[in-house]
Every structure is written in C-alpha cells, then in structure tokens.
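Human: You know discrete backbone vocabularies at least as well as I do. Show me how you would write down a chain together with its backbone fold. No explanation is needed for now; the record alone will do.

Assistant:
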Amino acid sequence: MSDTSYDLTATLWRWSGGANATDWFFVTIDGEADEALSATALMHRLETGRRSGWGSVKVSVTVGDTAWRTSAFPSKAEGWMVPVKAAVRKAEGLVEGEPFTLTLAF
C-alpha cells in the first residue's frame, strides 16, 4: 500500500442483502478519495491486465483507536463502499446514520 491517506467524515449505512437477509454495514467514500480509488483501480488493471475481485482496492481504515484492513468496492449507485464490521462498530460506538471521522489509506 502507498502512503496515500484521506481523513473523511462518513456515515454508516445498512445494506440488507440477498436471500439470507444478512445486514451489512458500509460507509460511502466520495470526493477526492473516491477519485483516487478509481485511479488506483484503473492503474491496477492497466499494470496487470486484470481487475481485482469485484474491482476492489485493498485499503487500511482507522476509526478512533481501531484500525483494520479491508477492501473498498465500487458501486454504480454508491461510488466506493467500505464495509465496517460489527467489532469495529461496537468498539467505536458507531451508529447507523450518525457521522464519524475515519482515515482511509491505500
């Protein structure tokens, strides 16, 4: 991963998926970070001749005292989406619909 990082204000939102009705929580990445993620994904395709799984980009995320590695996923409807697992939501007291600050690096 490069040293590119972005401090963002994000809002947690819920996606209820598929037949198993499991709820997943995401934040939407927009603005300058959105553009940088798109450029990173494009460069990967040009350099390797293929896309990563679902067009994803590996990222590091920090919220408060919690840091983790995950992937950002492109979405035509939402821009780039980053999943936020339950352990992070609980540790940092994140609530759906309430804004919080995160640092995204890739």
About this structure: The chain has one domain: 5-105. Residues 31-48 form the longest helix (18 residues).
